[in-house]
Design brief:
Elements: H1 3-13, H2 15-28, H3 30-40, E1 43-45, E2 50-52, H4 55-63, E3 68-69, H5 74-81, H6 93-105, H7 111-129, E4 134-136, H8 137-154, H9 161-177, H10 183-208, H11 217-222, H12 228-240, H13 245-258, H14 261-268, H15 274-282, E5 290-294, E6 298-300, E7 303-305, E8 310-313, H16 315-318, H17 353-368, E9 374-382, E10 386-393
Parallel strand pairs: 2-8
Antiparallel strand pairs: 1-2, 3-5, 4-10, 5-8, 6-7, 9-10
Helix pairs in contact: 1-2, 2-3, 5-10, 7-8, 7-17, 8-13, 9-10, 10-12, 13-15, 13-17
Length: 396
Amino acid sequence: MGHLDRYDDVLARDPMAAFGLVREWMRTEWRELYAELRSRRPVFVTPVFTVVTRFADVTEVLSDEEVFSVRSFGPRLDAALGGAFMLARDATAMNWRDKGLMRYVLDPDDVVEVRALAGRLADEALDAAAPYGKIDVVHDLFRPVALGVCAEYFGFPGPDPQTLSRWSRTIITDCFANYLGDPAVQAASVEAGRQMMAYLREQLAVRRSGAGPSGDVFGRLAATDFDDERLVINMAGLALGFLESAPGAMVEATEQLLLRPDVLAAAACDDDFDRYVWEALRFNPFFKLLPRICERDHELSGTPIPAGTFVLAAVASAMFDGDVLAEPESFRLDRPGRHQLFFGHGHHACLGVHPARVVICEAVRRLLRRPGVQVIEGVSRSNGIFPDRFVLALES
């Protein structure tokens, strides 16, 4: 019995049990589930949410902010940051102004410097672990690299790396993993955000006084005449958009490459290593679903979507759509960038895509070009999303 047949059977008897089945399948059998949905029910309506699975429909959802808004997670971000954040707004003047500001300070020409920084941080972590013959790449490599980039390039070290890491995980968990709206999770996010914002306000005062570095992203922001509160909110959003997604992507790409020894052997002697990372990540993207709210009645692939529907745009499914991608089940290095949805699409596509891309690829490259890398303990995750442990062997 296929996923849909089983779902329909359970739905007739117990709708919430059917919803639970779908949630579990989206965590553990997403490739098989989405393949069936693309073929038989590309816009999948459940009593709780609607999942959109084909490339054309997913990109339409992510491109049309007037119909599909970010209202599903926007208020939670606002609550955590104590004010309006641009990525929690659709097609507003504030969104356009703040987005322009962040594009200005995140100079694409920084990528050479940022790649070198990520490589240095990765090598330091790997050198420290090598005498032990193994490394938990989540907490001893990939998160330290991301936190180091946040500290040295963004200019946001936090009181200490552990505190900044805790703030980020707590807030992102509420915004993107708290589907049932657990009030305890929301309260923890608001408190983490309050602490983060108080810290950033103190640091901005130091920057405005002329003390502290000026060449990092925070320094560039402080040199503008934007309102102080807008600056610290955008600085917080920059860290929140990076500190979970970048290490998550590193873990998933590494796991997929290690599952393909022939591909990994080819990558080891290829100067264009980055393309291996992106094709590997397609087989298990970190963010597989992007949430939206349908603001007015709409139709996708012949299926009506009523106003108020919670919509999940399945970017992971879209990147396996055979109507768009040739041989989607094959590992191919010639896929065009327009088929990659790792950084979103449309109005809310990631603004930090240029530094993020090189950080992810360089950290994975430095790891996989070390001798003797192999899996000791597979990936474990919290909330079904966040990698929390992945132990690999290293030659000392």
